[in-house]
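Entry 12.
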Amino acid sequence: MALPSLDARRARHLIGRFAGMRVLVAGDVMLDRFIVGRVTRISPEAPVPIVRFESEHLRLGGAANVAHNIVALGGRVSLVGIVGADAAANGLRAQLGVAGISADGLVEDASRPTTEKVRVVTERNQQVARIDYERDADAAGEVERAVVARITGLADGAKALLVSDYLKGAITRTVVEALLQSARAGAGRIPLIVDPKIPHVPFYAGATLVTPNHHEAEIATHLRVRTDEDARLAAQDFRARAGCEAVLITRGEHGMWLSEPRGEGTIPAVAREVSDVTGAGDTVVATLSLAMAAGATLAEAAALANQAAGIVVGKFGPATVGVEELLASLKDEV
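Predicted 3D structure (C-alpha cells):
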C-alpha cells in the first residue's frame, strides 16, 4: 500500500517554510577525521596496504552532522551533547563554528574522550581502516544533570525536538524524559523525533516518531523485514514495544515504511547512484524534523526526507543536502 503522494507544489511550500525554523538536537556528537592517501604497494611487514599520505580533513559526525543538515536546509539549530577536554573537542567546536552552529550546548566531560572516528581512505574513497576514539558509558551525575539543564534552557522556542542516539552515552532515560517534558511544555504540539539505538527502545515511550533502519527493526521485533508486509508487521510491533506514536522504517533501496495512527504504507526509494550511505540517517531525521516543524504531516515529512536521502547517498562521508539541491530534485510528484 502506497501513501498519498506529495505534489511538487506542496513540497516547495513546505521547503519554503524551513527558513528560520528552530530545532533542538540532543545526542552523541562526533568528529569525523579523514586521512586520504594513495595505495601503491603492500607492506613487507604485514599483508596490509601502505597508504602514502596526501591530505587530511574534518567533518561533523553523529548528532553534530544532524545539526549541520538542519542548518544546510535553512533551519536554525540548538545542539546539546557531550565532549571531552581534548584536541578533538576543539576541532569539533571549530567545525561547528564554520557551519554556523553554536557550541554553547556542549557539556564537557574530562573523564571521556570526544567521540572521534578516524578513517584512512584512498583517493578513490575506498576505506582502508577506521580508528574509533570513544567511551560509551552512559552520562551520569553532574554531566547528566548538565545535559538536562542545557536541554531545558535551549528548548524554549524550538518547533521540533530531535534525539540522535548513537549509543555513546549522551542519551539516557533521564535525558529523553527531559526532552518529552520540554515537548509537552512548548506552545502547540512540539514533535519529538528519535533516531534510535535498540538497547534504548524503552526510553522512547511518548515520542512522536522513531526511525529505525530495517536491521534495527528486525532486532527489536525479532521479525525479518524482506517485503512490504514484513515491514508493516514490524512497524506495528515496534510501535507497541517503543510506546511511540509513529514509526518510520528506512529500508535502503526499498524505500521507507511509515506506520502511524492515520494510516500506513510504503514510500518508494528515489533512484540514485549510491556512493556512500554514511550519515544518510542523519539527513533523514534532520529533514523530518524541519518538515514537521513547518507543518507537514508525517507522510509529507517522510516523503521529503526520502527525497533528501536520495541526494545525500550520492556523496562521500557524512554530508548535507542544501535547499536548492532539494528543490531541484523535485518533479511533478515526490
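Annotation: The first strand starts at residue 22 and ends at 27. The chain has a mean pLDDT of 91.
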